[in-house]
Design goal:
Rossmann fold, three-stranded parallel beta sheet, about 10% strand
Length: about 130
Protein backbone atom coordinates (compact mmCIF):
# COMPACT_ATOMS: atom_id res chain seq x y z
CA UNK A 1 0.00 0.00 0.00
CA UNK A 2 1.37 3.41 -0.99
CA UNK A 3 0.65 5.99 1.70
CA UNK A 4 -0.43 9.48 0.71
CA UNK A 5 0.06 12.48 2.95
CA UNK A 6 -3.71 12.84 3.48
CA UNK A 7 -3.72 9.47 5.24
CA UNK A 8 -0.75 10.40 7.42
CA UNK A 9 -2.22 13.80 8.30
CA UNK A 10 -5.47 12.10 9.29
CA UNK A 11 -3.59 9.55 11.41
CA UNK A 12 -1.76 12.38 13.18
CA UNK A 13 -5.13 14.07 13.78
CA UNK A 14 -6.41 10.86 15.42
CA UNK A 15 -9.00 10.27 12.69
CA UNK A 16 -10.78 7.04 13.63
CA UNK A 17 -11.45 6.01 10.01
CA UNK A 18 -7.79 6.44 9.05
CA UNK A 19 -6.69 4.46 12.10
CA UNK A 20 -9.12 1.62 11.33
CA UNK A 21 -7.93 1.51 7.71
CA UNK A 22 -4.32 1.35 8.89
CA UNK A 23 -5.18 -1.60 11.16
CA UNK A 24 -6.95 -3.30 8.24
CA UNK A 25 -3.89 -2.87 6.00
CA UNK A 26 -1.62 -4.30 8.71
CA UNK A 27 -4.01 -7.21 9.31
CA UNK A 28 -3.88 -8.01 5.57
CA UNK A 29 -0.10 -8.21 5.89
CA UNK A 30 0.55 -5.41 3.41
CA UNK A 31 3.67 -3.30 3.50
CA UNK A 32 2.86 0.39 3.92
CA UNK A 33 5.29 2.19 1.59
CA UNK A 34 6.20 5.84 2.11
CA UNK A 35 7.25 7.65 -1.09
CA UNK A 36 9.82 10.40 -0.52
CA UNK A 37 7.49 13.07 -2.03
CA UNK A 38 5.05 12.26 0.80
CA UNK A 39 7.85 12.85 3.31
CA UNK A 40 8.27 16.33 1.78
CA UNK A 41 4.53 17.05 1.94
CA UNK A 42 4.23 15.95 5.55
CA UNK A 43 7.25 17.96 6.71
CA UNK A 44 5.97 21.00 4.81
CA UNK A 45 2.64 20.66 6.57
CA UNK A 46 4.28 20.24 9.96
CA UNK A 47 6.72 23.11 9.67
CA UNK A 48 4.40 25.84 8.43
CA UNK A 49 3.55 28.51 10.96
CA UNK A 50 -0.05 27.25 10.92
CA UNK A 51 0.84 23.79 12.24
CA UNK A 52 0.74 22.66 15.84
CA UNK A 53 2.74 19.52 14.92
CA UNK A 54 6.50 19.59 15.37
CA UNK A 55 9.07 18.18 12.98
CA UNK A 56 10.14 15.82 15.76
CA UNK A 57 6.61 14.43 16.08
CA UNK A 58 6.52 13.87 12.32
CA UNK A 59 9.89 12.09 12.32
CA UNK A 60 8.68 9.80 15.11
CA UNK A 61 5.44 9.03 13.25
CA UNK A 62 7.24 8.19 10.02
CA UNK A 63 9.96 5.97 11.50
CA UNK A 64 8.22 2.66 10.92
CA UNK A 65 7.46 3.09 7.24
CA UNK A 66 9.91 1.88 4.59
CA UNK A 67 10.74 4.57 2.05
CA UNK A 68 10.54 4.47 -1.72
CA UNK A 69 13.07 6.88 -3.20
CA UNK A 70 12.32 8.95 -6.24
CA UNK A 71 14.44 7.42 -9.00
CA UNK A 72 14.62 7.87 -12.77
CA UNK A 73 11.94 5.26 -13.51
CA UNK A 74 9.47 6.84 -11.09
CA UNK A 75 10.28 10.34 -12.38
CA UNK A 76 9.72 9.25 -16.00
CA UNK A 77 6.47 7.50 -15.15
CA UNK A 78 5.29 10.55 -13.18
CA UNK A 79 5.87 12.73 -16.23
CA UNK A 80 3.93 10.33 -18.44
CA UNK A 81 1.00 10.03 -16.00
CA UNK A 82 0.77 13.78 -15.51
CA UNK A 83 1.00 14.43 -19.27
CA UNK A 84 -1.92 12.04 -19.86
CA UNK A 85 -3.95 13.70 -17.10
CA UNK A 86 -3.25 17.17 -18.50
CA UNK A 87 -4.07 16.05 -22.04
CA UNK A 88 -7.29 14.47 -20.78
CA UNK A 89 -8.22 17.78 -19.16
CA UNK A 90 -7.45 19.69 -22.35
CA UNK A 91 -4.66 21.60 -20.59
CA UNK A 92 -3.62 21.92 -16.96
CA UNK A 93 -5.36 19.18 -14.93
CA UNK A 94 -4.66 20.84 -11.58
CA UNK A 95 -2.81 17.76 -10.35
CA UNK A 96 0.54 18.54 -8.76
CA UNK A 97 3.90 16.92 -9.33
CA UNK A 98 3.99 15.33 -5.89
CA UNK A 99 0.77 13.43 -6.60
CA UNK A 100 2.18 12.39 -9.97
CA UNK A 101 5.31 11.05 -8.22
CA UNK A 102 3.20 9.21 -5.65
CA UNK A 103 1.05 7.70 -8.41
CA UNK A 104 4.19 6.67 -10.30
CA UNK A 105 5.44 4.94 -7.15
CA UNK A 106 2.16 3.01 -7.01
CA UNK A 107 2.59 2.12 -10.67
CA UNK A 108 6.19 0.94 -10.14
CA UNK A 109 5.23 -1.25 -7.17
CA UNK A 110 1.91 -2.34 -8.71
CA UNK A 111 0.10 -1.23 -5.57
CA UNK A 112 -2.75 1.08 -4.60
CA UNK A 113 -2.51 4.56 -3.06
CA UNK A 114 -4.17 4.96 0.35
CA UNK A 115 -5.61 8.46 0.33
CA UNK A 116 -8.55 10.74 0.98
CA UNK A 117 -7.66 12.47 -2.32
CA UNK A 118 -9.25 9.83 -4.52
CA UNK A 119 -10.08 11.98 -7.56
CA UNK A 120 -6.54 13.05 -8.48
CA UNK A 121 -5.12 9.54 -8.23
CA UNK A 122 -7.96 8.06 -10.25
CA UNK A 123 -7.29 10.63 -12.98
CA UNK A 124 -3.63 9.58 -12.88
CA UNK A 125 -4.78 6.02 -13.54
CA UNK A 126 -3.64 4.15 -10.45
CA UNK A 127 -5.57 1.98 -8.02
CA UNK A 128 -6.84 3.80 -4.95
CA UNK A 129 -8.10 2.82 -1.51
CA UNK A 130 -9.72 5.24 0.88
CA UNK A 131 -11.13 5.20 4.37
Amino acid sequence: MILDSTFLFDLMADDADAYEKGVEVVDRGEIQWLPTPVVAEVFYGATTARSRTTAREVRNRLLGYPRVALDEEIARTAGELLARADDGAGGESGIGWNDAHIAATADALDDAVLTANVADFEVLGVDVETY
